[in-house]
Automatic annotation (TrEMBL):
This is Sugar transporter SWEET1. Keywords: Cell membrane, Golgi apparatus, Membrane, Repeat, Sugar transport, Transmembrane, Transmembrane helix, Transport. It is found in: Cell membrane; Golgi apparatus membrane. It comes from the Eukaryota. It comes from Crenichthys baileyi.
Amino acid sequence: MDLTPLLSWACIVFTVGMFSTGLTDLRKMRESKSADNIQFLPFLTTCLNNLGWLFYGILKMDHTIIVVNVIGALLQILYIVMYFRYTKQKQLVMLQTLAAAAVLICGWLYFTTFLTEGDARLHQLGLTCSVVTVSMYLSPLTDLVAIIRSGNVQVLSFPLTVATFFTSTAWVLYGLQLNDYYIMVPNTPGIFTSLIRFYLFWKFASTSQSLPSYKPLHI
């Protein structure tokens, strides 16, 4: 039985749902007219990651990867524009955005000018995107260590954790179905980090409820 169509739709639905969790931050920015306590770099790095995977999907002619990352990139651009509108650190945000654009342009020139053979370009691009994706999944580990020490899970987003778990699982199964390790391997850490977060919610949720509440930072 070919499960590829089912897994394709699962990847699209779960991933778009995960990207849409940023709408919560967007609503907070519009209501408060401020970008305080909201992190900018996750929007920027996710946008770069989306554009890299979009190029990979185009080279591979994979419509699932293309659709997901077109939607993801557009959402991240929306978040970036709205963040720039409400932030007080416009100069810093502009510099970070220009640096990201420079990285994107250099990457584009490298993969389109120096790598002309399709297979070599596809493999190197897949490897690059995989490394970036793994680093994004593993980057919150230092925050998780701090949460274990403090016993406070209020800085974690439970909906985002659920979305990440189902998204990562769907992509791992999709990559396994296509025998594409560049899809399967980088999404595996997302499953493990989500399971760690679920454990932290189970272990510290009752403790955190007794602590003073404050505006959460999504990790």
